[in-house]
């Protein structure tokens, strides 16, 4: 079984091209991790997920602890086996979704008590229980429990949550059972306050983790503020370990974050958008509900190597969306996850070639230029 | 381009093993045709459909004429190309669904005028227009327009509808443009009145079609009555042409119909059931919502060659269904269509081997014996 180890292969400015070795496979970074909330990347088979080039997927501790339950998944051989994904997985700590989804939350030094959004049942999540659940899920990468607050917040509130998250980081580290090829990540908090971010990063580095996440962003703040926060945070993180920006984002957000030193991403956007008729393409996002596509025999991108992107006409995708057919959600999610991986493939190559700035500029220009012009509408065949 | 031609390879009692040659591929009979109502076999990709062994799929004229429109599909290269299915397709005439789905219907000698269930728009369907629409869809097998009445009905009403269907059969034949490798099927009506069925069958044979369907069954009547009607109908149909029992059914219905001389079937049951947690298996139908599956690591059938049937635990399928995840509908639909094809494969082999009666008896016994016993529930890992 390989060691859990980050191999830094190339740097280009602050951008990094690496390889994360884990018990269950290698992850080329920068990487995008599709989100498999309830043990499924919504509307896709794992064969489709694999075909996009994804090397790791994410599972949500909050959802899985409530249904079907962590102990049950453990008895069934862990989350990878349960859902039939043969690569590494990362699970979040559950903290973020307790804050956004659960009812009747009560947070204190010990942890958080909450009611399930499914059946109202009471549950407790402490740093120790979160680590235990992720162990039961057999997560290749485990995340510490942290407190994620809203932006903007008062500085004293941001500082309190950051300090609490640091103490929870220490308890998470203590609770984590090291296994070869498995890793534990700490999470930097501190809102958009660079001094707090720096203290958080240094505090985590002093404890020592296998990777470092930047949490508390992608909660509605402007992109420039997110980038600024990354610029003030990444330099305080060890260069020897992977850096993960949680919950981000749009392709332009991810590309900009890579230029600032981030290695890993996750986001529900490609799959959620896939269920609401949005297709991500190199020419920007398209609304497949739009009538302009109704008679268009062209695929989203004839040069793509994703079947969903290459083999179906826009007219067919439009029809599926309008008819609310499940296959529409499947094909658009597949296309979107593929496009996200395509962006990552491009970034990795560009960093190796020392032209990451140019790649991102070209990508933004291509997305901004917009879609191919519509075809002239043919006369009715009758 | 091959001729449209039915090759009768073996008979075993009334059961027939054949091959239907068409412009777009060969169909081994007995065959089950998955239903692709709105240009998609619901919740499945066509790659999955193909993997089950399906050789032909069905499209619904009523749905497609309303959305996205037959002329539009024609401009886009026909239904096969539109939806990305490389085999032959059969389209129904639209008549049955006008009767079951449309609002404000008015039927007379000329045809039927109705309102769309989608937007209330008025449409007309005549025998000629139905044939034209199916031509625009580029259906490999076109069905005549018929009038399908409820069971039971008064004899004079059944006779009136049967006679009208015969006159519409004649008009459909006139309207159909013969093309090499393409075929037109007539539809036998007459309710459960064997004298009317015989007159209908003979009338159609006198007009001359490329295949003969039995319509007006599978509308809620007992299985025994359906079988009796088939026994009174099939002997009046040419042995040289394929016979298609429309809208049937459960595996046991299909198997019994094959023993009575039917070659082709279609039904929404495998896909509709797949979206409502039902799994068809050789041990009978299973309700995957049932808590007995929650901890069961076993697949639906470890010996199956369908990934959905073989590679996922019952526990995972149960979880997906309970969580209302799209993948649950996909995997169960895939399993169900595969099982239907497996029944057809078994029937074909059994007819060749002269043991079709025994095969059906064994199949019914296996389905009736019920599911494997549950595993003893393990103790909680904690």
Automatic annotation (TrEMBL), chains A, B:
This is Queuine tRNA-ribosyltransferase. Residues 14-366 form the tRNA-guanine(15) transglycosylase-like domain. Its EC number is 2.4.2.29. Homodimer. Within each dimer, one monomer is responsible for RNA recognition and catalysis, while the other monomer binds to the replacement base PreQ1. Pfam families: TGT. The active site is at residues 92, 266. The keyword Zinc does not apply. Pathway: tRNA modification; tRNA-queuosine biosynthesis. Belongs to the queuine tRNA-ribosyltransferase family. GO terms for biological process: tRNA queuosine(34) biosynthetic process. NCBIfam families: Q_tRNA_tgt (TIGR00430), tgt_general (TIGR00449). It catalyses: 7-aminomethyl-7-carbaguanine + guanosine(34) in tRNA = 7-aminomethyl-7-carbaguanosine(34) in tRNA + guanine. Keywords: Glycosyltransferase, Queuosine biosynthesis, Transferase, tRNA processing. Residues 247-253, 271-275 are annotated as: RNA binding. InterPro entries: ArchSynthase1/Queuine_TRR, TGT, TGT-like_sf, tRNA_ribo_trans-like. Catalyzes the base-exchange of a guanine (G) residue with the queuine precursor 7-aminomethyl-7-deazaguanine (PreQ1) at position 34 (anticodon wobble position) in tRNAs with GU(N) anticodons (tRNA-Asp, -Asn, -His and -Tyr). Catalysis occurs through a double-displacement mechanism. The nucleophile active site attacks the C1' of nucleotide 34 to detach the guanine base from the RNA, forming a covalent enzyme-RNA intermediate. The proton acceptor active site deprotonates the incoming PreQ1, allowing a nucleophilic attack on the C1' of the ribose to form the product.
């Amino acid at each position: 079984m390989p060691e859990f180890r980050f191999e830094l292969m190339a740097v280009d400015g602050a951008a990094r091209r690496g390889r994360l070795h884990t018990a269950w496979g290698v992850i080329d970074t920068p990487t995008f991790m599709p989100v498999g909330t309830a043990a499924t990347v919504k509307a896709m088979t794992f064969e489709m997920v694999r075909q996009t080039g994804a090397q790791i997927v994410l599972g949500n501790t909050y959802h899985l602890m409530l249904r079907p339950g962590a102990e049950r998944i453990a008895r069934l051989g862990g989350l990878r086996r349960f859902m039939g994904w043969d690569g590494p997985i990362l699970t979040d700590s559950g903290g973020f979704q307790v804050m956004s989804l659960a009812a009747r939350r009560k947070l204190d030094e010990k942890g958080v008590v909450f009611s399930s959004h499914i059946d109202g049942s009471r549950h407790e999540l402490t740093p120790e229980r979160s680590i235990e659940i992720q162990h039961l899920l057999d997560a290749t990468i485990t995340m510490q429990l942290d407190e994620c607050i809203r932006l903007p917040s008062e500085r004293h509130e941001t500082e309190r949550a950051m300090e609490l998250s640091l103490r929870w980081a220490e308890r998470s580290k203590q609770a984590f059972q090291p296994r070869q090829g498995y890793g534990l990540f700490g999470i930097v908090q501190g809102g958009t306050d660079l001094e707090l971010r720096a203290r958080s990063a240094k505090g985590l580095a002093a404890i020592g983790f296998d990777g470092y996440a930047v949490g508390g962003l992608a909660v509605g703040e402007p992109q420039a503020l997110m980038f600024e926060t990354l610029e003030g945070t990444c330099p305080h993180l060890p260069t020897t370990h992977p850096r993960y920006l949680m919950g981000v984002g749009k392709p332009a957000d991810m590309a900009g974050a890579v230029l600032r030193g981030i290695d890993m991403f996750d986001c529900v956007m490609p799959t959620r958008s896939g269920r609401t008729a949005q297709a991500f393409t190199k020419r920007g996002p398209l609304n497949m509900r739009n009538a302009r596509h109704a008679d268009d025999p062209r695929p989203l991108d004839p040069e793509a190597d994703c079947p969903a992107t290459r083999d179906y006409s826009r007219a067919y995708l439009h029809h599926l969306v309008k008819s609310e057919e499940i296959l529409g959600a499947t094909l658009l999610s597949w296309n979107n996850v593929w496009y996200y991986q395509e962006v990552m493939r491009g970034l990795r190559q560009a960093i190796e070639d020392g032209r990451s700035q140019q790649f991102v500029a070209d990508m933004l220009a291509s997305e901004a230029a917009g879609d191919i012009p519509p075809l002239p509408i043919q006369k009715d065949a009758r």
